[in-house]
Amino acid sequence: MEDLEETLFEDFENYSYALEYYSPETDSEEKAHLGAIHWVSLVLCCLAFVLGIPGNATVIWFTGFKWKKTVTTLWFLNLAIADFIFLLFLPLYISYVAMNFHWPFGIWLCKANSFIAQLNMFASVFFLMVISLDRYIYLIRPVLSHRYRTLRNSLIVIIVVWLLASLMGGPALYFRDTLELNNHTLCYNNFHEHDVDLRLMRHHVLTWVKVIVGYLLPLLTMSICYLCLIFKVKKRSILIYSKHFWTILAVVMAFLICWTPYHLFSIWELTIHHNSYFHQVLQAGIPLSTGLAFLNSCLNPILYVLISKKFQARFRASVAEILKYTLWEVSCSGTLSDQLRNSETKNPSLLETAQ
User: Fold this and answer.
1) Is 189 strand, coil or helix?
2) Where is the G-protein coupled receptors family 1 profile domain (predicted)?
3) How far apart are CA 29 and CA 317, in angstroms?
């Protein structure tokens, strides 16, 4: 049994570091260095959770329950739902890193957590791409937008996005597995235990599909849409251009900063099959880049919604309406209490009856 575990660990060590970085052979100095970097990744994840949960919950509350249903509010609602569900499962990953990559939650939560993470990560990225396309068509092709930009068509797009995101997250349900090593449980991608060629092929294919569909395609789409939007709007009005420029720049830069390191390290990870020289770099870089990618889920409501002047106006109006209703209830309750107290003073018999 011990020989089997050693063999499995050797095979495991040669091909998979995506969210599995435990290494019992690391010396104390290297462990201290890696531990410091892993704590930085934990801080990023905690920051994403603390800021993202209330931020996305606020967007869900207003777009889902308070405001009129429009195409735009549906985009933002589903984007916030994707980020919110993704962040709800983030404490499991935070615990995993905090316990030195020990997974005590069982194989099914290992699979479910990875699937939810992949599902909502891709759904979030896809909705960012859809919002970019929608903004371009709405501003540059108003006739086409008026004809096809309907609630029914937007619901169809939303269903397609969630189905595609589910398809992208599906491999996590199949390949995620747990492995016991030295009283340590790892949650990792078990592409194959014995067939090296099949293992390499699956790892390469899934990584490149993730990079192309989950990064390059959305980045290319957003860049083209926003560049065309900037040039078109600039020709029409300098004033309108200035309003949109910083929002567009912030959106593209946030996407680049948060997701580029994650996908670069995913590609770099593929070289570990042929050369283990960068083992320590990957052990440090992948958790750090993962935490940075997770941070994008808390930035989305800020960059896409909260900096919008229209959203700010509607948010203030909604909050004012809620406060007005609450104060009205308190006022009515207070008035009713005063009336009851006055009636009891004028009619002591009522109080005696009540007693």
Assistant:
1) strand
2) 55-304
3) 56
Residue 298 contacts residue 55 (beta carbons within 8 Å)? yes
- Residue 223: CA count within 13 A, CB half-sphere: 9
- The answer to whether 218 and 129 have CB atoms below 8 angstroms apart is yes
Reply yes or no on whether the pLDDT at 303 is more than 50.
yes
Q: Which residue has the tokens 């398809």?
A: 167
Question: Could you give the C-alpha distances from 106 to 25, 45, 115, in angstroms and in order?
Answer: 25, 22, 14
Which candidate, 138, 304, 133, 128, places its Cα nearest to that of 225?
133
Which SS3 state, helix, strand or coil, does residue 22 take? coil
Specify the number of domains making up the chain: 1
3-state secondary structure at position 186 = strand
Closest CA to 79 of 43, 37, 125, 36: 125
Contact 276, 14 (CB under 8 A): yes
**Residues 317-331 pLDDT 10s:** 666 666 555 555 555
Tens of pLDDT, residues 248-273: 677 778 888 888 999 998 888 887 65
pTM of structure: 0.76
What rounded mean pLDDT belongs to the chain?
Answer: 76
Cα torsion 223, 228, 233, 235: sign = positive
- 33 vs 353, more confident: 33
Q: Tokens representing 283? A: 């052990």
Residue 120 near residue 88 (C-beta atoms within 8 A): no
**Which element (helix H / strand E) includes 184?**
strand 184-189
CATH number of the structural domain spanning residue 190: 1.20.1070.10
- CA 321 – CA 315 distance, rounded (Å): 10
Q: Which domain holds residue 147?
A: 35-322
Is residue 215, in this structure, part of any structural domain at all?
yes
Helix axes 28-61, 90-98, angle to 10 degrees: 170
Q: Is residue 343 part of a domain?
A: no
